[in-house]
């Protein structure tokens, strides 16, 4: 078990002919993101291939710039580096690159085209010696080290590549096959002990991008692999096939989950991306299949397909020049046209001052009628540890609401007395309704009627129908022009039990319940999800019930994150 008192250091070891690993080690938690939270430290693995030409693969991030360069300077190959190969780029790595480039002055930077664009934006005043590579390109370092590039774009790292060296049969796999564990073992001779850390790493980094991971695994079928050389943790020599198989299984596990959420975002500088990762952690902890979609690199058809298929969606955006980036605006348009209004939604984003993009996303979704699964998350610039924790909690809340909604929609499986009950009644019992309380005051008399027999009836004017038992409605709502409030109850609150009890005892219905007054003077239940102020237009005599048609004069949502309470019944012969 690593001890947190050891200082950061660099461990160097030869792993194959002409190939060295340089492991920048930290024994304590590197950063506060969930992926590091097992507290076992981590290693950031860089690799050096020395043949006729010298290539340095993946220098570490800014936390290790000093120790890494100090170690590098002790070796003669240092000034001979011909290539610095970057399997992906992030702001951390740029810090080390800035320090390294003037020292390794002969080196060309080798990376994918999206990475090259990021580099050019990060070094606007410098003409960088960049060599961009595509899938299948080769870089011959001599002595059999003819490196082959394999692209592995994912939502987290759209610029991702990995490298195969046919001389040593090593795959420099970057984000694939890693784990956050610090130790003295270079390889995985104790791979069984690593299983938990490997799957935890997968869950945090790859579960939400399992489709792309499967694509890369397919590509790897073409190669004979002796060593997997990841960006973090022990190198894989003793469990290569096992780990690849595990990755297949873990990807497959994602598709077995019954509830799905799509997380759409872009992030120009990584801050919204960090929030997205933390939200994914919260969702995944509740067994939700999450598909992360980086809108910058995903075609609209794929976005539409994912939105149509999911149970809930979450959208995140930075604010740039007062707007959401074009790709997010497109994604919002696709949501509004493709996602049914019952889908649970969520909004988040990082901003600098106004945060206009977040406000626009939230208001468009609310206006369209989507229920929100958590209170919109806003973060000024880079998220702190606390904000990331809030994002994870929001992901959990979203997952719990999704599950509850699924349970509410699930058919009642066992009815027990099905054989003897009237089949028609049972069939009618499958009709469900929103639980509501009609409230009204006439002079000194106040009334509250619990009902689930409410339905929207017209758009213009906005109108509803309510069926009320004749014995309940005696002298109530019997004239055109009578006014009342329809309180729509929120799932999970105890108001239903309260009003059931009250109607049995005949007590003042509003005793122990907080109320406001509507414009038409009737009570509004403050704990309701929303309410409508209504006027009776007409009523129809229907057997043992009156069917009342009322116009909605005005209304308000009182709790934006809640879902409507629904009454499921076993039989159509009772409420
Ligand atoms: C060119 C540019 C324009 C920006 N415009 C705005 C803006 O209009 N309103 C705002 O709140 N923040 C603005 N910001 C701040 C970004 O929203 C903030 O840096 C945010 O953290 C970026 O998120 P990201 O890292 O996910 O890209 C701007 C930043 C840049 C670089």
Features:
Pnp Oxidase, Chain A, Metallo-beta-lactamase, Chain A, 575 residues, seven-stranded mixed sheet, 3 domains, binds flavin mononucleotide, seven-stranded antiparallel sheet, 28 strands, alpha/beta, Rossmann fold
For this structure, the quaternary state is single chain
Span between termini: 61 Å
- At CATH level 2, the architecture of the largest domain is 4-Layer Sandwich
Give the class-level CATH name of the largest domain. Alpha Beta
Mean pLDDT: 91
| Fraction of helical residues | 25-40%
Individual helix count = 13
Biggest β-sheet: strands ordered side by side in the sheet: 1-2-3-4-5-6-7
Number of domains: 3
| Percent range for β-strand residues | 25-35%
**For this structure, what is the CATH homologous superfamily of the largest domain?**
Ribonuclease Z/Hydroxyacylglutathione hydrolase-like
Q: Give unreliable regions as ranges.
A: 412-416
CA radius of gyration is 30 Å
Kindly state the number of beta strands: 28
Could you say which small molecules are bound to this protein?
flavin mononucleotide
The CATH topology annotation of the largest domain reads as Metallo-beta-lactamase, Chain A
